[in-house]
């Protein structure tokens, strides 16, 4: 049933969504349309990313985003493109993005959904031709349709997501999403301008041999995290870290691995943003049989209090996360 039904090879994302519409919470077609709008934004951003070296759109714009980080031009472009696609699509009443402080109203107050996005994650990699990605998370609003969306619509908690996904602009562009009925991945075919189903019902390996962490911060980690990493080294696991969550997560999901962003003095709550980085990745992870935790609970159970709140995250193959949990338990 749902997204697990047998499908022919070569199916496009549009057709896949249409065939699975009945499996969605409410089969009104609104979520289907929203996913298509996100895919369209992804295609546009893919085009911008691909031509980034040709025209003068990379490099710092000279402004900084609400979190004081260096905002790259391509981040701004992706932000604008995404918002525009969701506004035109009509299924979203409000958006929050990593790039902006306040709620963005689309003008479609009748629409049912709100979306939290990181339009272009991995900002340090934009200028140097390394993989970057888009991350998105969708909720059904709790406020009545026809009214203005509020904070409450966005602060429902990770378990209330109705869809989540990412688009990785890598050696190829791939869109991976879940609506709570498994995870499917669609690879972009440039010449046809279509995403095709390439990885059906993605499942994380039970265990893995890759660990992804910024080891430059090693001395800042708590001793139990350090002990876990030392054990990874002792077992001669592969250390792989791009510095783009989407790329690191995607590789680990397919090959078996763990991604860690622990708290540091610079980022006492961890660096990644709960609403549009941790929650969506955790939803996908759980749907693929992987796990996502901080040192207290499952990521999806972390209570949201503000739009841009940060959270530490450990995400990956279930056995690796369970082993890490043993180290957490040993902490004083
Ligand atoms: P960004 O939203 O500014 O791009 O930061 C998020 C990124 C993640 O994609 C990545 O995993 C992490 O930050 C890398 O951080 P660091 O450079 O501290 O290792
Ligand atoms: Mg980000």
From TrEMBL:
Mg(2+) 1 binds at residues 98, 118, 120. PROSITE patterns: FBPASE. Residues 11-199 form the Fructose-1-6-bisphosphatase class I N-terminal domain. Its EC number is 3.1.3.11. Keywords: Carbohydrate metabolism, Cytoplasm, Hydrolase, Magnesium, Metal-binding. The keyword Hydrolase applies. Pathway: Carbohydrate biosynthesis; Calvin cycle. It is found in: Cytoplasm. Homotetramer. Belongs to the FBPase class 1 family. Its main location: cytoplasm. SUPFAM superfamilies: Carbohydrate phosphatase. Residues 205-328 form the Fructose-1-6-bisphosphatase class 1 C-terminal domain. The keyword Magnesium applies. This is Fructose-1,6-bisphosphatase class 1. PANTHER family: FRUCTOSE-1,6-BISPHOSPHATASE-RELATED (PTHR11556), SEDOHEPTULOSE-1,7-BISPHOSPHATASE, CHLOROPLASTIC (PTHR11556:SF35). GO terms for cellular component: cytosol. CDD domains: FBPase. Substrate binds at residues 121-124, 214, 241, 259-261, 271. It comes from Dyadobacter jejuensis. Binds 2 magnesium ions per subunit.
